[in-house]
Amino acid sequence: MKPLFFLMLLSIILYSNTFGQQYSHEFGEVNTIDFQYVYEDDKNAEAIVLYDIGETKFKRTDNGFVLHFEKRTKIKIQSKSALEKFLEVEVPYYKETHKIEKVENIEASTYNIENGQITETKLLKDAIFEDVINENWYVKKFTIPDVREGSVIEYRYTVESPFFVNLKDWEFQWTVPTAYSEYTVKMIPFYEYVFILQGTNKFDEQKSYTSQGMKRQFGSIEFNDNVHHFVMKNVPAFKDAEYITSVNDYIIKLDFQLARIYPLTGGKIDYITTWPDLIKELDKHQYFGDFIKKSEKQFSKSDSFVDIENKPDMEKFEYGVNYVKANYSWDGRNGKYANKDFKEFEREKTGNAGCINLYLTGVLQSMGLEAYPLILSTRNHGKIIESYPFSSFFNYTVVAVKTNNSYLLTDATDILNSQFRIPIKCMNGNGLIIKEDEEFWLNLNPNFISRTEKFFKISLNENLDSIRVNEEIKAHEYEALYFRNRYYNDTEKLDEYITSKEIFGTNNLTVENANDASKPYILKFCGTQSAEVYQNKVYISPFLNQVVAENPFKQETRNYPIDMIYPNSHSFSSIISIPEGYAISAIPNSFNFSNELADINYAAFITSDNEVKISGWYTFKHALYHQDYYSKLKYFYMEIIKHFNQQVVLEKET
Q: How far apart are CA 576 and CA 612, in angstroms?
């Protein structure tokens, strides 16, 4: 009995120690339990966030307060695919005139098990560096050392900010499972925030209370912190990353927005406003409404204005957009406001998106057109929540011109885009037109179809071991813009693109309309591709494997809308010459499908004794689909892959 009792007691002690170790969230406390941890609902996850803990508090300084944010994170690396994702950590920070956020106290370690012992490799100072995002945003980066498959990594840092608008949001969900996520915010009575919870309607733990102990003092006011504590456990990985605007639009997170300020002198300053108040504020702003007025005044005195003032409205519109594109250059930066004053912009002829499009608004207004600035949030900046009137939701300005009962949208930053189109990055829900005494939202999703057409002429060489290819690609609307921005008429880049399609020996490469956005982008070339020959049969893929071959929708269900950015159509037409002494052994089956969501059409037929023609096209009719249509869209892709990748089989005649 005694040995048995001893073993039972030892088991209880080991279990007790294991239980305690498993739930330790202190920095630097790494043990074998961390390496053994299994996330039961996703055992094959490439990594697991063991804990992610953050705290924001108002730290007293000689000049008042700063926001002090601390974060510590521990991650278990379970596969090689996770190395690239978690090897480098990026911490963005903000700078404005003489104020700047500070990223400090960076520590990181990698833990590995070697010869049965846990080893630690610490971050070196020379692995910390900085990068510039734009004039206001910078990023501090550090590379975690000696990370391998099976490692446990841990890091922490602090951020101090004089910008009270920038109270840190908190993301409870990652693209890998999170075992434990905790965020604590310690508020003071001089600043009031609202928080927006996204992706769920509850926490595993939530409590709000007034801190105990010695009171703090600012001026004549004594106070205790108001503490808000949020915890979520066993948060699943975010996996629906295909066909969405931004992961940040859908993951489980808390978003904080400054609502009002209570000065020591009394009263209050409302930071949260109404949309009409925001419109009035922008209309009077030096780098927004005032910039437009100066632009209008300046252009109305120019010789260019005299040349166009009596022309039809549409001619004025096109002239105005082309004038700005030809005489002013975009510096590559987004912006809701102009990033320099009008005189500086006029002198240097370059500026951010705010400068370019606010100036264009003034130019069009000077010609008598009903033009307004439209503010929006770009796709990577996140969607606008229209029930919360915060200026910070917006980061970009385009131009809306009223024609009859509708609006034309334009943007003069991209010289390769049409005068009648805005950039793809701007297609993100609704935008707000800045028009006095009117709150008007405009949907930014296009309702016209962008098309790509591919034409193939295929024949076999004399030895029947390779295929001769003549191909023409014709792209329209945003599909054309993709080619213009990515390749223009750069033959070296285009040759790399063609080679990626397994077509080699490219020659006779020509590009048409590379710089004319009013016409389709056309690419023509010749080349060769290896033939697939087996037992006197030649197998030919009519569209040369240039159709989607893998279904992008891999999940069983979908919790979020499917965002295709714009309605799109892809057509393929192939004529295959049958060599002498060969006959058609197999020809693909035809297929036809159409409903309110999509069209699919595929047909194959013999045109003569020595030719066969294959044609197919598919169209997704909407830019945005509700998640309820996910299974249908998944089925459409299955049918496209099934039919459009069929082969023509030629067999040697006996």
A: 5
State the Cα–Cα distance between residues 218 and 487, nearest whole angstrom: 60
d(CA 125, CA 120): 16
For the record, the structure tokens of 3 come out as 């040995």
Residues with Cβ within 8 Å of residue 229, at least 6 apart in sequence? 182, 183, 184, 205, 206, 207, 208
| Cβ-contact 341, 402 below 8 angstroms | no
For the domain made up of 27-261, the CATH class stated in words is mainly beta
Q: Regarding the domain delimited by 275-443, which CATH topology (the fold level of the hierarchy) does it fall under?
A: C8orf32 fold (3.10.620)
Predicted confidence at residue 468, as pLDDT, reads: 94
Q: Are the folds of 27-261 and 275-443 the same? A: no
Q: How far apart are CA 33 and CA 494, in angstroms?
A: 52
Beta pairing, strands 562-563 & 624-625: antiparallel
Q: Which CATH class is domain 450-652?
A: mainly beta
Look at residues 535, 531, 534 and name the one whose alpha carbon lies nearest to residue 458: 531
| Interval 437-477: pLDDT, tens | 889 999 999 999 999 999 999 999 877 788 999 999 999 99
pLDDT tens digit string along 106-139?
Answer: 999 999 999 999 999 999 999 999 998 877 889 9
Tokens 């975010």 belong to which residue?
238
Residue 373 class from Cβ within 10 Å (0-12 exposed, 13-18 middle, 19+ buried)?
Answer: buried
Could you give the C-alpha distances from 442 to 318, 373, 611, in angstroms and in order? 21, 12, 51
**What are the residue boundaries of the structural domains of the chain, listed by start?**
27-261, 275-443, 450-652
Task: Name the residue type at position 644.
Answer: F
